[in-house]
């Protein structure tokens, strides 16, 4: 009998109920880390990162090591057999002989999907081009749930690169499933959300949203401000990137008009879009967000490996 294998390719692969259970486990991990220190003993995580990454890759590695497992893999395409022309499907077939689960980041949209079709182990999409970044989205949702106490009845500002920002696309897709959500989409015209997000997610689900270019005017109504960097690697034209990169900079002056309990999130790394002076503001949650990412990925690895939650 064929055994069903679970992968994570999109944030919508998990139901709202499953997300609640995942976040409950992640919260328990945060409160009782020692309880989970050996639950994945003898298990191996392969990190297949065809694109550079610091936070996501190390977060996955820390997650598996915290669970008592081990890690192997590569951190850029040039150090893998991809540099020799090996296909993703062949690579994952080989990796399936070495590891129990893998996290893959790739510049091509759909590469983790291709891998999942040919894989003998669970595949986690750790970012594919400008498409999806589900574990970052799970991290964002847990941060909001933990610090705001809810995932509904929120006005969320998304600022910066909304066209190529896979974290933005994934977050919109996920939050559209909760009630009374409003999005304020803050970007230059050239970097607005793609039509498929506007039409297939926002309009199709009757989600309230507005598109604006001015950050200052949007600040007073926001419960969450999700800042993103302008991504050099997504631009074909260096001159266009240089023109866009300084479009939005959040500083203490702009924070004065925000709600006292508004949260500032950022998937990181930042360049100059959040001034370092904002780091000392109690509403700056992006470093807590990074810590929550480890707990979420620990819970996810356990879920996909079907490891029982310890008593």
Can you walk through the features of this model?
This protein is of the alpha/beta class. The chain has two domains: 16-132 and 293-305, Rossmann fold; 135-280, Aspartate/ornithine carbamoyltransferase (Rossmann fold, 3-Layer(aba) Sandwich). The chain has eleven helices and nine strands. α1 crosses α11 (286-304) and α2 (55-66) packs across α11.
Q: Might you state the CATH topology name of the largest domain?
A: Rossmann fold
Compute the average pLDDT: 90
Query: Radius of gyration, Cα only, in angstroms?
Result: 19 Å
User: Strand sequence of the main sheet, in spatial order?
Assistant: 7-6-5-8-9
Question: How many β-strand runs?
Answer: 9
Q: What is the number of independent domains?
A: 2
Low-confidence stretches: none
Q: Give the C-level CATH assignment of the largest domain.
A: Alpha Beta
Name the CATH superfamily classification of the largest domain: Aspartate/ornithine carbamoyltransferase
CATH architecture of the largest domain: 3-Layer(aba) Sandwich
In percent, how helical is the residue content? 25-40%
SSE arrangement, N to C: HEHEHEHEHEHEHEHEHHEH
| N-to-C CA distance | 31 Å
Q: Which structural class do the helices and strands define?
A: alpha/beta
Proportion in β-strands: 15-25%
Main beta-sheet strand count, sense and barrel state: 5 strands, parallel
User: What is the oligomeric state here?
Assistant: single chain
- Globally, the shape reads globular
Number of helices: 11
Q: Can you lay out the helices and strands and say which pair or pack?
A:
Layout: H1 16-31, E1 44-49, H2 55-66, E2 70-74, H3 88-95, E3 101-106, H4 111-118, E4 123-128, H5 134-148, E5 154-159, H6 166-175, E6 181-186, H7 195-203, E7 208-212, H8 215-218, E8 224-227, H9 238-244, H10 252-255, E9 263-265, H11 286-304
Parallel strand pairs: 1-2, 1-3, 3-4, 5-6, 5-8, 6-7, 8-9
Helix pairs in contact: 1-11, 2-11, 3-4, 5-6, 5-11
Keywords: Pyrimidine biosynthesis, Transferase
Subunit structure: Heterododecamer (2C3:3R2) of six catalytic PyrB chains organized as two trimers (C3), and six regulatory PyrI chains organized as three dimers (R2).
EC number: 2.1.3.2
